[in-house]
Specification:
241 residues; alpha+beta; Thrombin, subunit H; 2 domains; seven-stranded antiparallel β-sheet; 14 strands; globular
């Protein structure tokens, strides 16, 4: 039986897991993907949101949406695992004084995709209202099997990159099905017309949270990842601020 999605209730849950991400050269959104023993937390975002900070070892500020608490992570205080081809990154750090009491949101299964027509929501901090946590929604246009991502009939504004995309069939237990990566406008006629939102599916999330149970393991894996960064394959315009 189809259940009507309760977006306002789901958004209150998602809000508990979400962060505004700032660096000297960009802004975006992220969400709690994993928690490990020893107060280790992992924040997922779009790679292009933190790419410059990653390459140039700049500080990254995280602001928790619900509590407004914030932390500035310098290069020696975090480990970043990039996947530029999927436009995905995981920021791993020790929680310290930052109060992250909630468990990560539920992830959708890595071996299933939603059908076209299903309504999904996403949220983040658009540059048109950079201090407001904003909600967006649209219907899935298609699932791109070859890249494991969705095209959604909706908008993604600068600053929302890295925000969680989710479904809300169970009001208080929304399921994250992807991450906002890009807005692809329609330029077929020579002018820029409305396009679609590009959402990376959850498969890389499941892969990234495997095999990291300590900061020592994180350090080793981060060093390996540093040598594997390549440019995004899609070539589309990112939507970070």
């Amino acid at each position: 039986m189809h259940m009507e999605q309760n977006w306002s209730t789901a958004l209150e849950t998602i809000k508990k897991h979400t962060f505004k991400i700032l660096s000297p050269n960009s802004s975006g959104t992220g969400f709690l993907l994993t928690k490990r023993a020893g107060d280790i937390c992992g924040i997922a975002t779009a790679f292009h949101v933190i790419e410059h900070a990653y390459q140039w070892e700049e500080p990254i500020k995280l602001i928790h949406t619900e509590s407004k608490e914030q932390v500035i992570l310098h290069q020696n205080e975090r480990f970043i695992f990039p996947n530029a081809n999927k436009d995905f990154a995981l920021i791993l750090f020790q929680r310290g004084s930052l109060k992250i009491e909630n468990e990560p949101p539920t992830l959708g299964p890595h071996d299933k995709s939603l059908k076209p027509g299903v309504q999904v929501g996403w949220a983040g901090y658009p540059v048109v209202a950079p201090n407001e946590f904003c909600f967006f929604t649209g219907n899935i246009s298609c699932f791109l099997e070859e890249v494991g991502s969705y095209l959604v009939d909706g908008v993604a504004i600068n600053g929302v990159s890295g925000g969680p995309a989710f479904v809300a069939f169970e009001e208080s237990h929304p399921q994250v099905i992807g991450i906002v990566s890009a807005y692809i406008p329609n330029r077929a006629g020579g002018e820029t017309l409305p396009g679609v939102c590009f959402i990376t599916g959850v498969y890389p999330f499941h892969e990234f949270i495997k095999g990291i149970d300590s900061l020592e393991q994180a350090r080793d894996k981060a060093l390996e990842s540093k040598n594997l960064v390549t440019q995004p394959a899609s070539g589309e315009n990112p939507v970070s601020g």
